[in-house]
Amino acid sequence: MRGGNTRSTATDWFTVLLYILLVIVGLVAIYSAAYESMGDAPLLSLETLLKTRFGKQFLWASISFLVVIFIQFIDVRIFQQLSPVFFGVTILLLLYVMFFGRVIAGAQSWIDLGFFRLQPSEFAKISTALLLATVIARRNMDLRRWKDSLLAGSVFLFPMLLIIAQGDSGTALVYGGMLLILYREGLSAYVLILGFSAATVALCTFYFGKLPLGLFLSASVLISTILHLTYKLISQSNDKKISLSNHFIIIAFAAPLVLLSIFYPWMQTELVNEFSPETFEKLIILALILLSLGILGALFFWKKASFGILLALWAALSFAHIGQYAFDNVLKTHHRNRINDYLGKVKDPQGIGYNRTQAMLAIGSGGVSGKGFLNGVRIRGDYVPEETTDFIFCVVGEEFGFVGTASVILLFLFLLLRLLALGERSPTTFARVYLYSVATIIFVHLCINVGMTIGLVPVIGIPLPFLSYGGSSLLAFSILVFIGIKLDAERFKTLR
Amino acid sequence: MAFGQERKSLVVAGIFIVAAFVLIGKLMSVQVFDDTYSDRAESGSYRIETIHPSRGLIYDRNGVVVVKNMPVYDIEVIPKKVKDLDTLLFCKTFDINVEEFQAKMDKAIKESRYKQTPFIRQLSPEEFLPAQEQLHKFPGFYAQVRTIRQYPYSSAPHLMGYLSEVNRETVKENEYYQAGDYHGVNGIEKTFEEILRGKKGKRYITVDAYGRDKSSFNNGSRDSEAERGKGLNLCIDLKLQTYIESLMYNKIGSLVAIEPATGEILALVSTPFYDPNLLTGSERSKNFSELNRNPLRPQLNRALQARYPPGSTLKPVVGLIGLAEEVINENYWFACKGYYQLSARRRLRCSHSHAPNKNIQDAIEQSCNPYFWTVFRKTIENEKYEKQSQALGRWVEYLEDFGMGRRLNIGLSNENPGNIPSVGYYDKIYGEGAWKASTIISLGIGQGEFAITPLQMAQFTATIANRGKAIAPHVVKREDRMKYRELVDEPFTISAHDIEIEKRHFDAVAKGMRQVVTDGTAKIAQFGDVEVCGKTGTAENPHGDDHSIFVGFAPLNNAEIAIAVVVENGGYGSRYAAPIASLAMEMYMHREIDESRKWLEDRMKDANLIEPILKAREEKERQRLELKEKEGE
């Protein structure tokens, strides 16, 4: 027996409340989306429970409720000790679905259990979070060391690759968010910036094509070399360290050159022919992002290594090629179509862009206060596809308007910040890393899912945590959160 | 700038907060500030029904409707909106089986889940009307009225062309078309597609949450009516056209009749032909492939696409050029010894013996080969030109003015330009300047490498009838032609308004052609007291019997009709081509055939030149197979 602790655990009821609210919002939205198929059966009759989406989701919410209560009685040490086992099992399941899984919506990620289709990738998130926490919590780990960072990173890189192989690139992105945890635990900010830059460069590559982007990056390399030499010249002539404002002056000189180098290749592409205000707008935005990345990069690298910028730009250049390769060869046709739709390269609101267009129309039609519960014409008129799963947010948008959507986002934000706070107040690295993992997983889901329904990111099929219809998803997120709550509740017990 | 470990949590929290507010900001813009989404979203709860206009009718020169429309019904589907479908009832209602249903549904889904695509095509009113009452039981299925073409006279398929369903590429390239639409791909239907198709209308229908039609949207303020296609008046004389079709039944060949004064094409017949009604309606694709398999190629428009050496029918033109180039005069005569001394060692034999000629009229009447060889040789060896190649070049220019060797652009898209051998052609074969008039002497009687279409034969005949005034031939009446000028290719023109040959030369040659009918090879062509003129010809055919050719016009002065006929494997021009041409001219000018010539009409109608060809083909095939078998042994 350990400690003979009689003190009741300190469950964080605020988190629980946020969780319950989000699940209720989800049930309401699914009820509304599935309303027409409900028939005349009473709301909580057996028929409703077993046949309709609302009923099934309600059942899953109940099951989740039982499971999370059960979790509160588990000895938390099990999570840490058995995390490699959990991880191994989920990896095996992922491998299993890779070869024998059911293909739904272009992704081979389901195991058919008859009454229920299990999606191992949902549970892989939990075991990955647990293993990541376990690995980082090892006594001799220091993520400021590259080697240790790499070791920790490989924990989520492995399932990430497996899930990409299943054709579910969306879920794979979730693991990418775990870089944030490594950053929190000591990884240099450069990696974070590099990751963000890589994503930006990839998108730019898809947008501009490899050649013009290559030209642009080459031009950037040239410019930054000149800048670097100028800097050296100045610093040699003047013994004093160059102040921050001087950097800005140099960059201000460089900015027009950088912009020019973007526009020159752009003018040579076929984009000129399809010139439209939206193209122009997107172009400006991308240019600004690249520019600010350049500035940010400059600020960080200037002092550090003399070849920092050059290295980063060359890395970006090669990444542009890798990105294009991945775009052409790794991504599936529907992924490419969605990215092209997002970038405005294809205009096909009835075909490729149908989902996004209809989703935005549904949300947009909600206005400030929405059309009211069960009054969502577009949802019920079946204009929006997947209205109970990936596009559930459209229901909130159409029926409850901006008030509804903003409230949901804020609920999520509170939950995320609360989870970070729980992590920060935790006495153990294990609990902290785990809670951070939970937060980042939910965060990426939120950004991608909501972002795609309002045209901020390409359409990527991943569920909105707690809201989207789907047993695996709801159960997995419930377990994910409540392990965190349990770890937090035990914070006074741990005497290590 | 790097943060300390303890402050990194703030960075992460900061990222979360910024991202959340980016989402909220975008939501605010989409939901609160951006009207476009709400506007479009509101108006999105309607269904757009396309109203198909009926296609423009096509009339002949006398206002007879040649092509009209018949309503048919398509059942279309929006796969996404199909719900709780009683498949069996559906199949029973529309008389299809479940496999067919599944195949059609798969195809529709492949096309688009959200777009209305054709499901069952072209139900006749009899088939559709009983099913119409059941249609509301099948959500996601809609009826669509279209019209298909109908040809009450089953005539002139080549001229009218046909409609065909648009393919994916067309839908992509041309925003007017949607899947399931039809467009003209041949003949008049193709050339005048843009005016015949009319303008589609749209009806906005509000739908309820279940996708059921409720009422017209916004009281129909955004609806637009369909505009029916504009009618088109052809130059064709339908009565003449169908009469000729009956004469040329069971023969391979073609006939082109032109009104010389206007260039209006009165008849354009190509046989064997087919009933244009075969290529409308639901049996279309079956019939289409059957026609394509037919070895006699009924789909080929021989009047525009088949090329024949004009043979003796070219002699009037050869004579005209000789006169124009002043290498002979009207009274040039030539003692035909029954052969032509080409060179010291080579003699060409005249095809027949005849009385000595006194002038060019006689020569045309007698169709004397040595005479025209001589004329041609004189033309090419003309001392006016430094080189013979220049003389030949000039000779070819004359022919081009007569409309040979070039497209005349009568308003149909598939004309063959024919072939007049050029100077370059001979330079290539014999070497530059290494050929002489004697090398290419067969051109003088319209043979050798010479090949022109029946349309071009009719055009030069019309030009002779006009005494040199070259008028572009057309299938569409002048008013319509002027209105829709941009749809038709630039019509045939010559540099000068008239061909540079004096009228008196034309008079002489025309008189010669009159003599052909009064005293020469085409006596059969005479009818009534009309001064019929003409020239028979025979095109050598290495694969079988020679082709029977006749060109002619009537009357001698102020001709009302010029005509060219080719009957493949018909032998001499006087055997089939001349009688058919004369009957056609008689029908056009007198609107009936005189009792005294009914026997000729019957003989032409009854003659079957196709059967022997098919038999010969079969025989050949049989022999080939036998040979193969033997080899196999």
List keywords for this structure.
heterodimer; A: about 500 residues; mainly alpha; 3-stranded antiparallel sheet; B: about 625 residues; alpha+beta; Penicillin-binding protein 2a (Domain 2); Beta-lactamase; 2 domains; 5-stranded mixed sheet; 5-stranded antiparallel sheet; about 40% helix; elongated
Q: What does this molecule look like?
A:
The complex is a heterodimer of chains A (496) and B (633). Chain A has 496 residues and is mainly alpha-helical. Chain A contains 20 helices and three strands. Chain A starts with 12 loop residues before the first helix and ends in a 7-residue tail after the last helix. Mean pLDDT of chain A is 75; it is low at 1-7 and 267-275. With 633 residues, chain B is an alpha+beta fold. Chain B has two domains: 46-233, Penicillin-binding protein 2a (Domain 2) (Alpha-Beta Complex); 238-612, DD-peptidase/beta-lactamase superfamily (Beta-lactamase), CATH 3.40.710. Chain B is 38% helix and 16% strand. In chain B, strands 2, 3, 4, 5 and 10 form a five-stranded mixed beta sheet that branches. In chain B, strands 12-11-17-16-15 form a five-stranded antiparallel beta sheet. A three-stranded antiparallel beta sheet of chain B has the order 1-8-9, with no helix packed on it. Chains A and B meet through helix 9, helix 16, helix 17, helix 18 and helix 19 of A and helix 1 and helix 2 of B.
